[in-house]
Amino acid sequence: MINKKETLVRKRSFPNQLAPDYEKESFEYGLKVGQAIQYEWFRKKGNSCKFYDQWIDFHRMRLYARGEQSVEAYKKQLEVDGDKSYLNLDWSIVPIIPKFRDIVVNGMMDRVATVKAYAQDGVSAEKRSAYQEMIEADMLAKDVLMKTKELFGVDAFNVDPETLPKNEQELNLHMQLNYKPAIEIAEEEAIDTVFDMNKYPQLKRRLAGDQVDLGLCVAKHRFSYGEGIKLEYVDPAEWVHSYTEDPNYEDCYYYGEVKQIHITELKKINPNLTEEELEHIKNTTSMWSTEYSVMRSYNDSFADSEVVNVLFFNYKTDRTFVWKEKILDNGGMRVIPRDDSFNPPQDETVMFRRVEKKIDVWYDGVLVLGTDQLIKWELCTNMVRPESAFQKAYSNYVAAAPKMYKGTIESLVRRMRKYADQIQIIHLKLQQVVSKVVPDGIYIDADGLTEIDLGDGGSYSPQKALQMYFQTGSVIGRSYTQDGDYNQAKIPIQEINHNSGHNKIQSLINYYNYNMQMIRDVTGINEARDGSMPDPDALVGVQKLAAANSNTATRHVLDAILDVTQKLAECTSLRIADVLEYSDMSEEFAMQIGKYKVSLLDEIKNLYLHSFGIFLEVAPDEEERQRLANDISIALQRDQISIDDKIDIMNMRNLKLASEMLKLRKQEKTENDQKREQQKMQMQAQINAQSAQQAAEARMQAAQAEAQAKIQIETAKSQLEVQKLKEEANLKLMLMEREFQYQMGVKGEESRNLKDREVYKEDRKDERTKLQASQQSKMVQQRQQGTPPVDFESNEDSLDGFDLAEFNPR
Questions:
Q1: What distance in Å separates the CA atoms of residue 315 and residue 568, rounded to the nearest whole number?
Q2: Are 583 and 225 contacting, i.e. CB atoms less than 8 angstroms apart?
Q3: What does the radius of gyration of the chain's CA atoms come to, in whole angstroms?
Q4: Do residues 484 and 419 make contact, with C-beta atoms less than 8 angstroms apart?
Q5: What is the pTM of this model?
Q6: CA distance 375 to 210
Q7: Tens-digit pLDDT profile for residues 90-138
Q8: Closest by Cα among 60, 106, 69 to 209
Q9: Are 30 and 377 contacting, i.e. CB atoms less than 8 angstroms apart?
Q10: Where are the alpha helices (DSSP H) in 141-236?
């Protein structure tokens, strides 16, 4: 028979932190830690308990966030003396809070955050510096290298000269945008692979939901030899921790989770448990469930005897590493590991001394609640330690509660809850008012109908009057009776308007709208963001500004999610290095990460040799993108950038780099425009010079052509003169030849004549005598007859008018 007092939470305090390491490793020490945590969270003060009070509060917030809160509170407000028999109402919840919750959570999912790694070890820093120096060398020698390429056809550039930075500002931007060593790519791929394997987008959505609902989100990272690196969701309602005022819970010295597991799972945690111990745990669990029956209405498994309540906890303390430093005879030193009980005497003659170092460590424990049964207590394996502070160890839990003050956590759902209650009451009241509203009626004055004669012998009955009224809207009446008196009922049918419920309905609607506005005011989610009808008179820019202000009001939710994501990425990076260096599954893990990028496999295997800085690159929100778009539009209107520049800048996810790129492109565009203007001026000057030169050349050519024409004319004249002279010479030569021939003939004739003259001289004497006689006779005859004298010889020695003396040599 188990005594009920054994299951009650007894007062316990935490053990001594200064205890030696061998004592901290004992189960007794771990049991004291577990029971101290149990006492702090599960001790009952009347009907309250810290853990279950927090659980119920968080559970209530989640019901409000889902629109499933209890309606009993609303029934109590509307019932009369506990009687609800006349409340025939629809008690379903108006889902106001779920709408606002989804707006914030879904908005967080739209903000894409990319994990970026920066290699900051010595080897990577040297490679980065060498690459930058190589770029700077190309920048300084660009002109010489371009000349070498033109003259000899040798490309001595280390990078493409088209993309070579022009100044230091462009070089810095180039190093941030374009330089990405393979080791950084491998690290980012490794972290992304771990996140994908653990379905982090789904985990992130749950964390964002907890942040909106509870104001607190918790995640856990661990390493399992069978599963690798695991990222897990932790329910804040089941999470315990030491008191802290840090919104990131980094100064807590213990964390824990309360889980309900089947009793057989205990054997997997500690295979050494005996059947008697398991039976004792089983019997104790039912007493624990009876003692803390507050949970029965929410989870039947608490009453199940096969399910036990187990506290999984981590406890931070320090561990002392001791070495014996011995001075050798040759002056050297040797260090030998010792336990923390090693305490050499303080004597100068002793040639050795104690050297120690303290580091933070975490112990992992499992306690069955309500018992003295500690299932597990051991030093955590694969503890995450930052390389910059090796003595520090990160916890497996990562949490964020940006609106926490003095241990009290504020959330958006908590702010909206009381106004949502008022809206629900108004909704129920509206149902009551609407159910009691009387429809409009008709009043018929029967006396007025009896005085009316239809003229066809028929009677004007109330039924016919109503039919005529509803079908035509007309009414027949008489101003005077048959006796001639004034008819008081001259309008026999009148409409009765019942507007008693209208004012109440309008008042409730106004109050409803007031509470809706209060929800917007306390959360910062205005009409521009919550999907309501925007103001038709408001400008588009005003609407966008209002939506941007709303995003600013809930920015703390996004910051909390980003803080948790970055911390998980940092811890994942450190765990990857440990896995690749120490784990037996390093080869399998490297292949799993590099299965889509085999080229990075060698880099992945060497990740543990490098040190990385992890940060998140968050895509800009609508406000930031709009501000950047406005700057780009202004730059485009002023012709400071091109369309290609706009596309490149808008595709950048880092807003700071995008702004730097915009400034750089504007500067480049200005410089290029100035160069283009100078080139245009130079080209215009060249064109003018060429035009002047061409005009001068044209004038010169014209003068040359004119001179050449004159020369040609003179040449032609000369040629004609020469030709004429040649012709004259040829003609004279022919004449001379002929004259010569003639003269030769004459000379021949003269010679022959002389010869003949000598021959015939004597013969001719007789003839002369005879001739003289004849001449004398003729002269006598002439004298007698008076005839002209006869000339027997010619005195001309020229031929055809040419004087032979012209052919004499000059």
A1: 20
A2: yes
A3: 61
A4: no
A5: 0.71
A6: 31
A7: 888 889 999 989 888 888 777 778 888 887 777 777 777 887 788 888 7
A8: 106
A9: yes
A10: 142-152, 168-177, 182-197, 200-213
